[in-house]
Amino acid sequence: MDLWIRGGTVVAPDGVATRDLFVSDGRFCEAAPEGATVIDAAGKLVFPGLIDTQVHFREPGLTHKEDLASGSLAAVAGGVTTFFEMPNTKPATTTPDALEDKLQRAAGRAWADHAFFIGATAENADRLDDWEHLPGCCGVKIFMGSSTGSLLVDDAAVVERILRGGQRPVAVHAEDEARLRERYAAVEVGSPYNIHPEVRDPQAALIATTRLLDLAEKTGRRVHVLHISTADEIALLRARDLKGLVTAEATPNHLFLEAPDCYNRFGSRAQMNPPVRDAHHRDAIRQGVVDGVITCIGSDHAPHTLEEKDKPYPTCPSGIPGVQTTLGLMLTAVRDGWLSLQDVARLTAAAPAAIYEIRNKGAIAAGHDADLTIVDPEITQPLPEQWLRSRAGYSPFCGVELAGWPVVTILRGEVVYRDHEPVGDPIGAPVAVG
Question: Can you tell me the distance from the alpha carbon of 67 to that of 60, in angstroms, rounded to the nearest whole number?
Fold first, then answer.
């Protein structure tokens, strides 16, 4: 579809301006194509389509929680046009065959463009330099803590082997597994949910992140540290300043939830790994977002059923659904004065595209894929649960007063979501990286 998106306030990292956008053959162009379909965007904000580089869509093996169809529908409902999906499914994505299986499952069912991580293990460490370049692979993921089976890589020597093979940035969940095991051993079943940030304490994150930065510096391999959760890590990243080697990501959960209030209000529905912590840590992460220590935002969308979530601590699983609510929450940061609209475009689109070198994504520029989300800033009602598209069906942000909400999502020039409803059939396709 050729499009003329008329009169919108276009948001980019380098500025905000009211102007028209033109799309031909799925890409931005410089003049209105003849016979283009007009979309009136007057009074609306127009962002580049969001890129969420950390989601868990649970397929295969855990589709009672989510699958590629339902998760990607939640993505486009929230203005996310590209997602990177994590490898901790059943079976785990640790081989080319498992990667190909996910690509086949996504074909004709994914509403957004996509790629998949290959999980690093001690067994595949010496093959990853080849596998990271497979079509549909966005890179390698290391779980230094908070995983099971072969996906858990808690041996520094194995982490170093992984980092020495390959060129692309490696995404890392950094918590110290030995400390986690020691602290969980002292927890009684049925303990209050609000002890979660004490069990998985800031030291567990700091130990692992420090070790990771040391290894990145030693090997010269780029690493991307996921879901930073502590003021201590922000201080470490700022002090080490390993530009070119280290980028870091924050989740909206760590920016907009606060312990102990979130646990007292929502119980395990506010429980994730690493934990949401108190205002001291939240405010430090916000400052890291403002001053560039945090490079981008990823939702860490990780749904579970309510039956699973309602189990007693610590038997209840960790994870919060969030792919649909990222943009709405970031707009509240703009309303509250600690981010600008330009910051939102940078953190959710331009920066993820740059970190992973995603081709033709993340910018409103001639020749790039025409991925857009059009936001109505007049939608300021409390977020209703019925808008949510994840199979989880809940969010700790339901009832939060909105500062705008996406009303049209466009993927490669095609409207795929409009006014809380999908449009047409899923057209998501693998993206090219590197």
Answer: 8
Give the sign of the dihedral formed by CA 340, CA 275, CA 139, CA 154: positive
Instruction: Supply the residues annotated as catalytic.
Output: 300
* Residue 300 φ/ψ, nearest 5 degrees: 50, 40
Same domain, 249 and 299: yes
**pTM for the predicted model, two decimal places:** 0.98
The Cβ of residue 289 has, within 10 Å, a number of other Cβ atoms equal to: 25
What is the rounded distance in angstroms from the CA atom of residue 389 to the CA atom of residue 420? 9
Find the distance separating the first CA and the last CA of the chain, reported in whole Å: 28
Confidence class for position 243, pLDDT limits 50, 70, 90: confident
Q: Which of 298, 159, 160, 166 is nearest to 228 (CA)?
A: 298
Same domain, 276 and 400: no
Q: For the segment 62-104, what is each residue's pLDDT rounded down to a tens digit?
A: 999 999 999 999 999 999 999 999 999 999 999 999 999 999 9
Are residues 255 and 389 located together in one domain of the fold? no
Instruction: Please identify, among 302, 330, 356, the residue that sits at the C-terminal boundary of a domain.
Output: 356
Given a contact cutoff of 8 angstroms between Cβ atoms, the answer to whether 48 and 16 are in contact is: no
H or E element in which residue 117 lies? strand 113-119
Q: HEC profile for 7-33?
A: EEEEEECCEEEEEEEEEECCEEECCCC
Whole-number pLDDT of residue 25: 97
> Do 114 and 248 lie in a common domain?
yes
**Each residue's pLDDT tens digit, 120-170:** 999 999 999 999 999 999 999 999 998 878 899 999 999 999 999 999 999
- What is the tally of structural domains in the chain? 2
Domain-located, residue 377: yes
